Amino acid sequence: MKSFHIITFGCQMNEHDSERMAGMLEAEGLSEAASAEDAEVIILNTCSIREKAEQKFFSELGRLTHLKSREGKSVRIAVAGCLAQQEGAKILSRAHQVDMIIGPSDIARLPEIFAERERRSTAVIETGGDPEYHHKLVPTRRTDGLKAWVSIMYGCDNFCTYCVVPYLRGRERSRPASDIVREVKDLAARGYREVTLLGQNVNSYGRHVSDGCTFPELLRQIHDVDGIERIRFVTSHPRDLSGELIAAMRDLNKVCEALHLPAQSGSDRILAAMNRRYTAAEYLDKVRRLREAVPDIVLTTDIIVGFPGEERQDFEQTLNLLRAVGYDTLFAFKYSRRPGTAALRLGDHVPEPEKERRLEELFSLQRPVTLAKNQAHVGQTLEILVDGKSKRGVSLSGRTRGNKVVNFPGSSDRIGSLARVRITAAGPNSLTGEICE
Ligand code: SAH
Ligand code: SF4
Ligand code: F3S
After folding, report:
1. 194-198 and 298-305: which strand pairing?
2. What pTM was computed for the model?
């Protein structure tokens, strides 16, 4: 039997695409190999969000192409995902050993693309995008048996000026609610307890579907699925975070008290240049309303430092936003120029060392806040979905509804169930506790 190995470079959506490609290959009779060295089919599922992701891919590709020339073994290399879409045939000029280039909206045709490659002697390039992609149900091989990602929409129409995603994943398309609910019911029947709904901008779900289902309505339908205990979703665009969604988060008890709400900047000038279409004050007002409705909500965010035109005073406003919100965790990135984006023409004038300094300043401000937020859980008894052995091997681990990792002693027959755990200690990255019987 032929074997395959997939290396994933990107976000949760990219990871979920890898699960789908694995599912399709298994349905074709292939088996998964533990490493690229052992596989006859190697897929690199790429990301282009920042230049670093691109560099990482090309160095990995360079490392893998030597596998093609091994004697007695025929190896196929496919490059899939966002960078495949961006670069297309150009990838071949850097690595002629590549056999297939497959865009993110073309992966449902993976088996046909593989068959096509066997029929000819040259590489197959499929980046046209399948207009029916959002209706397609493909076999998916999920790595986790308890928590599942479920795509609810593809693409993005927001065109934030720094971002390549709308160019690579295409226009926003929502999956029909009936397909999504069917998938969630099937997951529940197979023992899954948690679903994370995926989309670049989940709050605008349904804008283009004929059944008129909105995101809060979709949440209600998924909430009704027996067996599913927890519902999460990423990502929410602050502008589209509606009162109706806040009310749904308050009223639907399976919807977890956690929200990733990328702010990107605290400066109105920079937010406008980013085309984010909200001000810092509007953002803070949404946070206030969220906390009124869901008092113990865990909030996380993304920040970009060094966007073109970001002066010290703009950056100060970002620091102020962080102070005003008090996030549980922060993801922050140095601005990276991406091909085809509108921000390209603005230049990139913040010097690299200054970007580094701003990044470090953000993390220095955030570090004690994260620790304090974690320590505030000490003494509380929290509901934990036990998902496995902790990395230390001696105890169990799981996540709170706020999505924080908790390690605690216990026997492995608890894996897969909900437990009540009293938190006894907290560090910067995880909590420690003991099961309450
Ligand atoms: N759709 C999501 C996630 C997009 S990508 C959203 O709107 O939040 C994840 C994060 O990468 C973004 O939130 C942003 O902070 C960061 N990012 C995107 N493009 C970038 C770029 N060109 N340079 C640096 N960071 C970037
Ligand atoms: Fe990119 Fe903005 Fe769309 Fe997120 S919302 S994927 S940052 S364009
Ligand atoms: Fe995700 Fe990277 Fe594409 S973040 S959408 S895999 S560019």
Report:
1. unpaired
2. 0.96
